[in-house]
Amino acid sequence: DTEVTQTPKHLVMGMTNKKSLKCEQHMGHRAMYWYKQKAKKPPELMFVYSYEKLSINESVPSRFSPECPNSSLLNLHLHALQPEDSALYLCASSPYSADSNQPQHFGDGTRLSIL
Amino acid sequence: GENVEQHPSTLSVQEGDSAVIKCTYSDSASNYFPWYKQELGKRPQLIIDIRSNVGEKKDQRIAVTLNKTAKHFSLHITETQPEDSAVYFCAASSPNTGNQFYFGTGTSLTVIP
User: Fold this and answer.
1) Mean pLDDT (whole number) for A70-75
2) B77-90: pLDDT as tens digits
3) Do B98 and A48 make contact, defined as CB atoms within 8 angstroms?
4) Looking at chain B from residue 94 to 113, which residues have their Cβ under 8 Å from any Cβ of chain A?
5) How does DSSP classify residue A71?
6) HSE of A18 in the Cβ direction (CA atoms, 13 Å)?
7) SS3 for A44?
8) Is A93 in contact with A27 (CB distance < 8 Å)?
9) pLDDT tens-digit series, residues A32-44
């Protein structure tokens, strides 16, 4: 099983709503990531979790709140988003290694639209 | 931090021809270089990667070359097929930044039947 599963696939929400994006992997990977991707642009890193602890936060606004409840799950809680937050949100996972970088495996993403 | 540049931004080739995409990086400590293919509306998929202790790696019609001295690496696709049409992203990462990938800006490849 080499799959990263993201739900929902599509999400439309108003600026005052609260919603959550979910990501799950069962590859035993101990590093998980959230990316934001605009059309025809590269993925932009938002957060990195290593062994369920937040290790990188790329100065993301507080209206995005990540959570890693266990080694297989990663959530992204959304609140009071802005129209410019409309994008494809990608989750990825990789084996963790302290001394060498590892390939990241991406999910299909959640396409988010903010009204 | 690391800066990755990718060229060209768009590339059109006739089916059966070769395609080459080039990336340069700035951090001499970078030691891992993956390439991702992203078809429209789909996830980025790892197609090949190379580590800094290797100069070239090949997998069927796809090859990657790395020049550490010049700090550039290239993706080569031979005998292109229409299904190779996609956006391709290069990336670089270094042990100094954990597992963080620095992506290039992407190349939109179109293979004309």
Assistant:
1) 96
2) 999 999 999 999 99
3) yes
4) 94-95, 98-101, 103-106, 108
5) T
6) 4
7) strand
8) yes
9) 999 999 998 999 9
